[in-house]
Amino acid sequence: MTQFDTGPILPPPPNGAVEILHDREYRVEAFRLAADRLLLQGAVRDQKPPGLYLREDPDPLTVHHMQLAIELAFPQLEIIKATALFESHPQDRCPSITPHYQQLVGLSIGRGFTKHIAELFGGPRGCTHITALINAMAPVAMQCFWSMRAAEAKLAGEQQNMFDRSQSDDGMWKSIVNTCHIWDENGPEVADRLAGAPVTIPVFLRGRLEQLGFTSTE
Description:
Layout (H helix, E strand, L loop, with lengths): L22 E12 L2 E12 L12 E13 L4 E11 L24 H9 L6 H28 L32 H7 L8 H9 L7
Antiparallel strand pairs: 1-2, 2-3, 3-4
Helix pairs in contact: 1-2
């Protein structure tokens, strides 16, 4: 199994910070199940520092740990299976909400998804932490459009890299128009694509290309 970098991604504590009070982390992974199936596995975990709740306790205390698995049809991104699991929680009745998340089945991750999630699971209709986890997981599904294409090419034995400037524009970028300021339908990035301008190498790839001994140009 691939080992990803799990080192710190936060800056060091600022000067004057006396004691850390809380640590929340999200973790989301996506797996190819088949050419038309995608699996997202996500978790959220809240920890309190040693001695905060119990003076004699030498170890961090996990107060929330929720997991969610979502299976999707690809490329429609329609949810066909959802399983919620509580590993650590504050109240005995907390896990009773897990069947409610079966209402995810049939939804499509795309425009309007966040609104649907708020309507179905907001406030007393769901678990605050799993609902927040869903909103953290959904963008990962969108990230998988390019990854699934690259995985299919790799399985077929093709040598094409995920980013190949020699390939013609296949229009996949259109699926993310208006998802952020870069892809504003009235912005310069979309205008460049519509005009057929050469696609620039992503910032995150330039340094890696240099490390591998390749030259990169905009």
